[in-house]
Amino acid sequence: MKTILHKAATRGHANFGWLNSYHTFSFGQYHNPERIHFGALRVLNDDTVSAGLGFGKHPHDNMEIVSIPLSGDLQHQDSTGRNEIIRQHDVQIMSAGSGITHSEMNANKDAEVKFLQIWVFPKLHNITPRYEQKSFLPENRVNQILNVVAPDNKDAVFINQDAWFSLGNFSKDFSIDYQIKKSGNGVYVFVLSGNVLINDLTLETRDGLGIWETETLHIKASSDAEILLIDVPMQLS
Q: The sheet that has 201-203: what strands, in order across it?
């Protein structure tokens, strides 16, 4: 088993006034040659956007882009004519494929929006761009792991990659084992809140831990905690 620990305080940081963003991996003006990606996981940004502001229209191609609002609402518009509101407890994915232009704005005029912006390298390139979002009730992940992104689960949003995202809300002292979904995959654990032990390694709020060359990991909540698990191929095709 191999591991890599990224403490919250070691992340890249950019504050543009309207956007306050923490980067687990190299992004924008933050470049760390030792933190380019974790397997197929390329970007994990922890973003706060001021009321009424956001990312204007900009292009993407050949990337799976997942947005998970933690509080507040995001307005998504894209070059296919789609106009959607992504709310807390929703998970949205955009397969940029052969190319798409989109914007993401804070839909609220009186409150910040906080969300995770996650990019995963795709399995198939130059596909027709696609979009999907679904709601996942928090009570369905109390002391269990809820799969929210997958290539093989109709209840999750579909991703063009052998990758699985899961959320868990755990009570103090609760423990559970997680089985990595596919041989050759690793899992990146990101702590949204609270403290957890992962195979006896201590993680605190906004810490990240990558684990690979193993089949399972053991998770124990040291306090009430919420985590995100990102299970991705370690080798890029």
A: 175-179, 216-221, 196-198, 201-203
Cα separation, 28 vs 62, whole angstroms: 18
pTM summary value: 0.97
In a domain, 5, yes or no: no
111-150: per-residue pLDDT in tens?
999 999 999 999 999 999 999 999 999 999 999 999 999 9
Beta bridge partners of 4: 210
Find the domain containing 163 and state its range.
138-233
Q: Is residue 24 part of a domain?
A: yes
- Total domain count, the chain: 2
CA distance 6 to 206: 9
118 and 24, same domain (yes or no): yes
- Under DSSP, the state recorded for 31 is -
